[in-house]
Amino acid sequence: MTEPTSKAAVVLLLLLHSCVANNVFLNSHLASQVLVRNRRANQIFEEMKPGNMERECVEEICDHEEAREVFEQPDKTETFWVKYLDCKGTQMTRTAENINLVRQCIEGQCISGQGLNYEGNVNITKTGRMCQHWRHRFPHPIYREYNVSEPNSILVENFCRNPDKNPDGPWCFTQDPTVQKETCRVPTCGEDFVPPTVAPKSVRTTECLPSYGIDYVGDLDITLGGHTCLQWSSPEATALSRDKEFIPEVNLLSNKCRNPDNDPEGPWCYVDVSGNITVDYCDLELCDDPLVGGEQMTETGGMERSVLRPAKKLFFNPRTFGQGESDCGQRPLFEKQNKKDAKEDELLESYREKRIVGGDDAEVASAPWQVMLYKRSPQELLCGASLISDQWILTAAHCILYPPWNKNFTTSDILVRLGKHNRAKFERGVEKIVAIDEIIVHPKYNWKENLNRDIALLHMRRPVVFTDEIHPVCLPNKKVAKFLMTEGYKGRVTGWGNLKETWNPAARNLPTVLQQIHLPIVDQDICRASTSVRITNNMFCAGYKPEDSQRGDACEGDSGGPFVMKYPAENRWVPGGRGVVGRRLRP
């Protein structure tokens, strides 16, 4: 080799060395991703049990490469390594006591650090609130990043976890609608632990009023809305009371809250709201008056017999209620033509026996009272609802007002779509889209506790014309409600809600057309025992027992829609209630 050539070779080698020297030595974490080494074999025992986590990382301190040898899969290695660092597995000297602490921490039964490792079963927050199930959306919507559908998800049932690396440690969404989420007091490794308990609920000290408060003679004169009651003897109150049938024994003293007309919502009074004289209720606790009891009805085999169906007696004033009460609940393409839909007999037979079915497509025009509440922006399905006259729509109050879901809609936020069968398609010539100009939420609607009196009325800006696909359902009187609200009797739920439990809003998870399912009414005692939510006599449960082989339920998107039942004595359909999203979904 000539001298110039040898000098050039030396320069080339020096340059090559300077280029690669900085990248030769990688940290153990990165190296373990690309390098594979032969496992050490200190003893015959280690040769027989390669990659033993207990030996490698609990009894001894392991590094990331050794952890990779144990789990052999990058994702499992990373999951373990996050836990291991949080448990101070690389820092604690190995004494018998520390080995036990590291083991408990890795197993997730206690925490060290942020508690990223925690997999225990504490489900009560530090202030004593019960945790919400990670799969449920009530009372709070679970963020989509907490995907409980992943096979290896640690978000199990309603146990406290720390999926977002909260520096305060494990937490959960709470079952209290007024508190979205809260941290938990979970076991700390090496420290004594006293399990948390549910904080006792505050008990209202005032006694409840029996008989709807007819005998109330107190001095309350301020309503739930914060308005001062008008004098009962005022010209405005006198004019509005002229057509009412007041109970003579009720003394209408001054401007005090009273219940002279046996209103089931309790004592009330007239108030002046910006020049509009109206009724408002008073904040008085009523004792639950069960629906059962009272007048008796003649029943034969679970069915009322009726030879001649008289004309329906109107209850509402058409000037305020609108038209439609006289022939409500009789569908133009079915009852008015003496036809039954394919699934109708199942409801009627449930008044004699009990059978279970799953959900399916509803027949066209079989639920002409079905209404879709539609958000203007972004344009999307909000809830279901029921048409009750040519002017009014009935829905659930939580569809309009529910702060935990950021719901506080006004008339400018919502449209109503009537006559629909296809969920996404505009059905030209059949469908009607109408604006609303008034929303009335029940004044005693209780979103903070249990959604008691979860009811709202929407007034359409212009009356709708009835068609074969648009027709109102009947509002039941007390006699009809008593007959139908019986354990085992079935009602029909309709809606366009999700077909399965998923966060994915793709079209494949939504129905093409209106869905229906029949659900049996559940005994009230069983209903109350099945939930920690306080169930009042304004509520009922409908659905299947865990042991039933076929199941179904209402899903997100079905809320607010009708739970209708057919009253055989009058051959009319009436709403038994409005839907609140259940925990089980259609199979």
TrEMBL record:
CDD domains documented for this protein: KR, Tryp_SPc
Transmembrane segments: none
Gene Ontology BP, a term: positive regulation of blood coagulation
Keywords: Acute phase, Calcium, Cleavage on pair of basic residues, Disulfide bond, Gamma-carboxyglutamic acid, Glycoprotein, Hydrolase, Kringle, Protease, Repeat, Secreted, Serine protease, Signal, Zymogen
Keyword Repeat: yes
One of the Pfam families matching this protein, by short name: Thrombin_light
Keyword Hydrolase: yes
Principal subcellular localization: secreted
Organism of origin: Amphiprion percula (Orange clownfish)
EC number: 3.4.21.5
Signal peptide: 1-21
Sample GO molecular function, one term: serine-type endopeptidase activity
GO CC, one annotated term: extracellular space
Enzyme class, broadest EC rank: hydrolase
Designated name of the protein: Prothrombin
InterPro entries the record matches: GLA-like_dom_SF, GLA_domain, Kringle, Kringle-like, Kringle_CS, Kringle_sf, Peptidase_S1_PA, Peptidase_S1_PA_chymotrypsin
Domain Peptidase S1: 356-587
Compartments reported by the entry: Secreted
Catalysis: reaction(s): Selective cleavage of Arg-|-Gly bonds in fibrinogen to form fibrin and release fibrinopeptides A and B
